[in-house]
Amino acid sequence: MASQSQVSRPMTEVDRKFAEPLIEPLRSALFDSRQRWREFVLLTADFVFETDMAGRFTFIGPDPAFGWSAPTLLGRSGSEILAEPAAQGNVFVPVASRQRRQVWLRRHDGSLACLRLTTAPMTDGEERIVGLRGSGVEITEEEDRRGEIIAALRRNEVIDHILWHVRQEILAANMARAGLGALCRALGADGGAVIDLHRDAALEWRGDPVRHQTMDVPEEFVELALEHLCRPQQIGPMPIAGPLGERLLVSSCAARLGGAAAVLLWRGVTGREWEGEDRAVMAAAVGILRLVLEQESIQQDMARQARTDPLTGLFNRRAFVEEVERRIARLDRESLPGTLIFVDVDNFKSVNDRLGHEAGDQALIITATLLRATVRPTDLVARFGGDEFALWLDGADEFSASERAAALCERGPSELAHLAAGETVPISLSIGIATRWPNEGLDLDHLMRRADQAMYDVKRTGRGRWRVARAPRDEDPQ
């Protein structure tokens, strides 16, 4: 038999009369307890709320909360202030257990706030869930700092990745291409390029501004990058729209050694927009590329100095010989002749001795300028040392070379005359010419001896004229 304590019975009228005096005090105590909970929690939390079974707010504190006034939110679903309700789920709908979560809320002004949220179900006297109660502490600044640390670590990883690729190369030009390629891969760019704007030795704008590239750069992209270089007030990577809506990212990369340069990355029309983190990574990578480009400029300058005459800017003897030997091989393949011209400044020693070395240097510079102006841009001009110069004419025979030699002999004295004003000895040019016909088997040394001999024949017989070297079959056996 069941004990009396286990037997349940319906409440009688007597029971109700006995309980009625207690109901109101209990309700008052419950309300007071609930009010005390709200007041206590408001002292320790940044957000306090209660919701009904549908997740609608029935209480909000403090007022306002994140810019929202309590009357604005009461009766509305909590999902309306969630930053990403689909991803986070509606955390304001009651559940059977206590929950601790981190959520992002949308403030009234549209900005976001991160909360560490604790929720618990509310129950009635019969332990049925009737709503949800929760409190949250804002940790937006903490999350921002955490995000900054994560972003910084990612940037460090990207920079380490770029540096690793750069270190695999020796030449600065290869380093720049390796670093540019690694940056494109790290940021998911379709392509990249280094664009620069430099003047050559003649102070003319260099024709091709693309210095390095991972793939062919559309001309329209290059023009936009050059426009960016003309706006030095723009600092840091700047997103630019391409002509068809492509997504470009351009950053100035001016080297300390002068010149204007920019790093250009691009994504197609369907590519994602450049974000702040992309720009931060690019800014860090541009610092590395800048050092590499400076090193490349130094290497190029050293190579140029090793191959050029410092006074006239012409090729020196070594560079001239190396370049002519490469061209001879090509001319043989194309069955074309090539002609070597030696030029000597007559009475140069007299200018140096009587007028000084400054006048002598000026005579050499004038002669170099005259030689450049007489031949085609594709021909080679060099100073061999002292007052001796050499020219190489691709595809020219002794007849066309003679025409240029005659022009030099005519113009030389008039161009140099002012340096010898009052002197009895005029300054002129003595010229020797030697032509190499395709596949005749003569090396450059032999050709140089022929041209040199023709030039000294001129000097011995009066100077200021030109002469063509005898054909190989007419020369004395060596």
Order of the strands making up the biggest sheet: 2-1-5-4-3
Rg, rounded, reads 43 Å
What's the helix-strand series?
HEEHHEEEHHEEHEEEHHEHHEEHEHE
Total discrete domains: 3
Poorly predicted regions are 1-8, 199-205
CATH architecture of the largest domain, by name, is 2-Layer Sandwich
Classification by helices and strands: alpha+beta
Total strands: 15
CATH class of the largest domain: Alpha Beta
Would you tell me the overall average pLDDT?
82
* Total number of helices: 12
User: By CATH's scheme, which homologous superfamily of the largest domain applies?
Assistant: GAF domain
Please give the share of residues in helix: 40-55%
CATH topology of the largest domain: Beta-Lactamase
Largest sheet features: 5 strands, antiparallel
Q: What best-fitting shape do the alpha-carbon axes yield?
A: rod-shaped
User: Alpha-carbon distance between the termini?
Assistant: 141 Å
**What fraction strand?**
15-25%
